[in-house]
Each structure stands twice: as C-alpha cells, then as structure tokens.
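Example 9 (inverse folding). The structure is encoded as follows.
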C-alpha cells in the first residue's frame, strides 16, 4: 500500500513539475498570431489587422503568420493577385505560409509559389503546433 501511495505521489509531482517547466518556456512578453484562411482575397483585411496590432502593441507585437490552405490555394501562383499582398505582408512583418497538403491535393505547380512564402507539410497541423507555443489563432 505504501509503495502504491508513494508511486502515485511521485507520478503526480513529476507531471506537475513538467507542466510548470513547459509554461515557463513560453515567451509571454510577445503577442504572436496565426490566421488560417482559405481565400487569397482575405489577405487584405488580415494584413491590415496585423498592421493595426503592430502599431497598437509596439514592442509587445511578436510574430504574425497567415496560413493559406484549401481548394483555392492555386491562387497563390497568380502573381497579379499575390504581388501586392506579398509587398504589404513583408512591410507589416507578416509571414505567408502555404499548406503543402492543399498544394498536393489540388495539384498546384510548386515552382510557381512566390519565393517569399514558406511551405509547410500540413497547414492545419502547423496551426495547432503554433497554438501549442502560445500563438493566438483565428480560422476564416
């Protein structure tokens, strides 16, 4: 019985200590954001939001990423549509991210993806990974 009690107590202390360490590793001095969108046209209001938050928060503004996924992912290869968004995103410090799963599913030519964008294997998984790191998330 004593062994069971001590084992349970040890297990509980280990779990609570590990949780505490993980919370300490997150940098709460910066506000980080991730937005998951399915439409390139939504980049305009999302980037405007990033610019407003950057102005409002000053030094507390951290990272801002926009993940593009879904059946309209092919629009990112249209330089006319993307050109202005890429300039605005760079100026605002916003990282544009393409979902590799969507690129594959909808057979998008990866050589036509703007070089300023990064590609991740799975945009939804990447979004969850950022949320686990403390990012505030919105899906449109």
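The amino acid assigned to each position is listed next.
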């Amino acid at each position: 019985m004593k062994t069971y009690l001590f084992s349970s107590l040890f297990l509980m202390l280990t779990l609570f200590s590990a949780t505490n360490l993980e919370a300490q590793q997150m940098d709460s001095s910066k506000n980080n954001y991730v937005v998951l969108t399915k439409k390139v046209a939504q980049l305009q209001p999302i980037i405007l939001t990033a610019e407003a938050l950057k102005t409002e928060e000053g030094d507390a503004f951290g990272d801002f990423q926009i993940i593009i996924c879904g059946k309209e992912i092919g629009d990112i290869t249209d330089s006319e549509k993307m050109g202005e968004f890429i300039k605005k995103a760079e100026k605002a410090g916003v990282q544009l991210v393409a979902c590799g799963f969507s690129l594959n599913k909808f057979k998008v030519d990866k050589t036509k993806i703007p070089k300023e964008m990064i590609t991740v294997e799975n945009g939804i998984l990447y979004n969850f990974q950022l949320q686990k790191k403390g990012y505030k998330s919105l899906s449109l």
